[in-house]
Recover the amino acids of this structure.
């Protein structure tokens, strides 16, 4: 009798548990609805293929300069293997603030207005979590880096895309921002020079957007990770415009300018109250950025201007080659102002950008990324990275031309 | 940082790879091939570019190489120049520098064998008027030349595709 009662109880408990599981999903709904990157299948296809020439890589082909690697080894030899201050090693924060001062007179206090993060990725995440309440809206321009909308959603905000177009060389237009802004809008995210388009904002563009942000009392998250890789006019950060310092967080890092993606090291500078709020999240969730990477980053800022400049120069020359290559074969492509991407238009082929990328991969073994992966407004374009050796770029261009010929597009 | 001129850029490209085509230079710098060719010609005729040479791997390199540190008694009006120029005339001497420090001329000398080099130093070099002493340092292994490392770093795997 006892046995049967206990069996009965267990059945009841199981029943209860399973109905609870139905009512309460194991994965939080706001995470469950996040799209797994839309082009996973395409990525998988690329990864299973041998001998691919890839223009699809979003990180430098250069290895981090030797001075940086050597400084990392040295810091290990010295036994720098401990936690650092939560905000990041003071020497690095000082170097960051000095760099901003030198770069465009931006004034930030290393003790209160600067935080070292694990990539710009972490910086954006903790900034979103620090300022957003559920339902707050965030404007971001599209096509854009794939993590923006999910970062906002994960912080319980509402991502609101504002489309940009080739007509304006993919610079976000204030009239479009005006259409998207609501009383719930709290943040405007900017990323110029831009991934995936290579677009850049002029000083005039920045002034107009700053006016818009002030008018609607918005915070601005300015992801300037490609700032050092600008080839046209290099204007100061939007944060330096009147009225902007107190509402702007600038994100920058070492991944692109110093070819340090694997070090996972970056920083954010901004007004004290916001940095302090980010610091709380960082302190509890990350503790601090990796010490070794911090010593490496300090070396990068203090001693590697020439190495950085040599890489920038090489990117600029490759950009010229690849833009000419696409325009010569009739795929219209504006001259990017920065980053290491070109964004040629493939509408003339009659294919969608996914069809184009898949066929090109299968037939010519050249990988690039369909523009649609960066938002609906990227449809009709493909992203080609020129963070690839020149001979590979030239070989890829030959293959793309052959592909267009075969499909009677030229 | 001041923007480099196209001439400086072309010089940098040639230093990195003297066999780069005029077409690639033109495409890289967004100039015409004619313009690229005329700047290269200019660099050559004005004597900025004196020649082009191949960097040979240590395994393929024949002969024996040595650094010779030469002390010299300078001449009253010519200093080191006359004697240095005379020394440079020997085919065995592949490079020559006047240096500060313990000695004066830093020569790189090549010969078919160790004996060959030793003979050259003993009979030709140390007997030059004005040469006070020679120290011969035979080269054992070449690690780097003209900015190029002889042992290539291993390839670094990157993801084949990333956002
Ligand atoms: C626009 C943009 N922001 C942020 C990141 C991430 O950078 P980090 O390596 O600093 O996390 C990338 C990397 O591709 C990027 O393109």
């Amino acid at each position: 009798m006892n046995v049967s009662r206990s069996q009965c109880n267990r059945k009841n408990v199981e029943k209860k548990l399973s109905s609870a599981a139905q009512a309460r999903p194991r994965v939080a709904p706001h995470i469950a609805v996040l799209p797994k990157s839309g082009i996973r299948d395409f990525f998988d296809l690329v990864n299973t293929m041998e001998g691919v020439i890839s223009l699809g890589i979003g990180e430098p082909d250069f290895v981090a300069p030797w001075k940086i690697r050597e400084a990392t080894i040295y810091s290990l030899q010295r036994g720098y293997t401990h936690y650092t201050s939560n905000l990041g090693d003071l020497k690095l924060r000082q170097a960051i603030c000095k760099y901003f001062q030198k770069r465009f007179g931006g004034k930030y206090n290393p003790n209160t207005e600067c935080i070292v993060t694990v990539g710009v990725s972490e910086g954006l995440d903790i900034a979103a979590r620090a300022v957003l309440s559920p339902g707050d809206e965030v404007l971001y321009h599209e096509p854009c880096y794939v993590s923006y909308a999910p970062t906002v959603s994960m912080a319980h905000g509402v991502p609101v895309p504002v489309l940009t177009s080739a007509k304006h060389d993919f610079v976000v237009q204030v009239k479009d921002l005006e259409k998207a802004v609501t009383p719930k809008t709290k943040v405007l995210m900017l990323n110029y020079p831009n991934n995936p388009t290579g677009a850049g904002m002029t000083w005039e563009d920045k002034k107009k957007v700053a006016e818009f942000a002030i008018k609607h009392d918005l915070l601005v998250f300015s992801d300037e990770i490609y700032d050092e890789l600008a080839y046209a006019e290099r204007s100061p950060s939007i944060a330096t415009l009147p009225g902007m310092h107190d509402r702007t967080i600038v994100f920058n890092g070492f991944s692109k300018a110093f070819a340090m993606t694997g070090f996972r090291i970056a920083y954010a500078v901004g007004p004290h109250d916001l940095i302090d709020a980010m610091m709380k999240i960082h302190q509890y969730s990350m503790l601090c950025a990796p010490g070794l990477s911090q010593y490496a980053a300090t070396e990068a800022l203090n001693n590697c201007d020439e190495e950085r400049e040599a890489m920038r120069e090489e990117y600029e020359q490759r950009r010229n080659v690849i833009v000419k290559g696409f325009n010569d074969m009739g795929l219209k492509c504006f001259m990017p102002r920065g980053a290491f991407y070109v964004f040629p238009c493939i509408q003339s082929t009659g294919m969608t950008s996914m069809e184009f990328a898949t066929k090109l991969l299968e037939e010519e073994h050249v990988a690039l990324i369909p523009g649609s992966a960066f938002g609906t407004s990227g449809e009709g374009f493909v992203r080609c990275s020129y963070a690839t050796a020149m001979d590979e770029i030239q070989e890829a261009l030959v293959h793309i031309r052959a592909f267009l010929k075969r499909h009677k597009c030229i | 940082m001041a923007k480099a001129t196209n001439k400086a850029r072309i010089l940098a490209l040639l230093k990195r790879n003297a066999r780069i085509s005029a077409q690639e230079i033109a495409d890289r710098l967004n100039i015409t091939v004619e313009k690229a060719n005329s700047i290269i010609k200019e660099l050559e005729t004005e004597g900025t570019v004196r020649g082009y040479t191949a960097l040979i791997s240590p395994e393929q390199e024949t002969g024996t190489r040595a650094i010779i540190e030469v002390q010299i008694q300078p001449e009253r009006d010519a200093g080191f120049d006359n004697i240095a120029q005379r020394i440079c005339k020997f085919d065995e001497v592949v490079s020559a520098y006047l240096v500060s420090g313990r000695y004066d001329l830093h020569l790189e000398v090549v010969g078919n064998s160790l004996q060959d080099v030793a003979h050259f130093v003993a009979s030709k070099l140390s007997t030059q008027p004005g040469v006070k002493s020679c120290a011969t340092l035979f080269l054992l292994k070449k690690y780097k030349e003209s900015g190029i490392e002889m042992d290539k770093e291993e390839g670094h795997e990157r993801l084949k595709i990333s956002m």
Chain A touches chain B at residues 37, 43, 46-47, 52, 54, 56-59, 61, 63, 145-147, 195, 305, 309, 313, 317-318, 320-321, 324-325, 367, 369, 373, 390, 394 (CB under 8 Å). Chain A has 14 helices and twelve strands.
